[in-house]
Design goal:
This protein is an alpha/beta fold and about 270 residues long. It contains ten helices and five strands.
Length: about 270
């Protein structure tokens, strides 16, 4: 029986999830893996609010996978070492991961590819999973980037987001792969009292609420700091609990409204 491994990073969802869909299409079973990366803590990014929100996302992802007969495998440590260990345990030939543009993600991808190749395994990277478009998809003809927003936005609109992939009904995970207990927000100290709950389910609920009314006032109020007119979806986009290509949320708005009004507004204004 063939097995593939899915390394979740900043794409913590099951809806519109190209990485998971590709792994399911290429193997009989998959290992959905998240590594609580010691490198993130060493870099100083593992602050309480981030950790609590992330743990909510992992709990919700595990719940969504279990609804589909699967489960999330969690390991802690150096990400390349942990991925190689789990891939060997599962006998996985292919490891699937979302492409990312940060320097840290690029270095992780390079190290992971090299390490897997020494084991005779492949790293398959999927673009336009944590970004609306693949890197380099929107560039002018005579240079590597746009210097003016309007022509960039017109090119962006003409390119459009990728097609949304279907949500899997079943995720078969090998019984033999062990997981650490899921980390919990309750175990994190120093969390802000009003920190919102994380996870795909909460993100989709908030997206639906935004598109049922508040987004209509965004054009008038986005420069009014006291109006609190932004969608507050940026942490859900950051962790990939929502996707910029999202079109299947139960709301009345178009895909363009989702990505432009409820996506880029928060990415710009925080």
């Amino acid at each position: 029986m063939s097995v593939s491994l899915v390394l979740f990073t900043a794409d913590l969802r099951v809806h519109d999830q190209p990485v998971l869909r590709a792994a399911l299409a290429g193997a009989d079973e998959v290992v959905p893996l998240f590594v609580v990366d010691s490198g993130v803590r060493a870099a100083g990014f593992d602050v309480p609010n981030r950790r609590a929100f992330l743990f909510d996302c992992l709990a919700d992802l595990d719940n969504e996978l279990r609804r589909r007969s699967g489960r999330l495998i969690v390991r802690t440590g150096e990400v390349v070492e942990q991925v190689c260990t789990v891939a060997a345990e599962a006998g996985a030939r292919d490891v699937h991961v979302a492409g990312d543009v940060s320097g840290y993600a690029q270095r992780r991808e390079d190290r992971l590819r090299a390490a897997l190749e020494t084991q005779g395994r492949r790293l398959l990277v999927h673009d336009a999973v944590v970004t609306a478009l693949a890197p380099g998809a929107v560039t002018p003809q005579d240079r590597d980037h746009f210097a003016v927003f309007t022509p960039y936005f017109r090119r962006w609109e003409s390119a459009g987001p990728r097609d949304v992939v279907r949500t899997p009904r079943t995720v078969r995970v090998p019984d033999t792969i062990a997981s650490q207990p899921l980390p919990s927000r309750a175990d994190v100290t120093g969390v802000s009292p009003r920190l919102p709950g994380g996870g795909e389910s909460e993100g989709r609920r908030r997206l639906t609420a935004c598109l049922r009314g508040p987004v209509d006032a965004y054009a008038r109020q986005h420069d009014d700091l006291s109006a609190d007119a932004t969608s507050r979806l940026s942490p859900y986009l950051h962790f990939g609990a929502l996707t910029a290509s999202q079109r299947d949320a139960p709301c009345r708005r178009s895909p363009q409204s989702i990505s432009v009004h409820c996506g880029s507004s928060d990415q710009t204004h925080g």
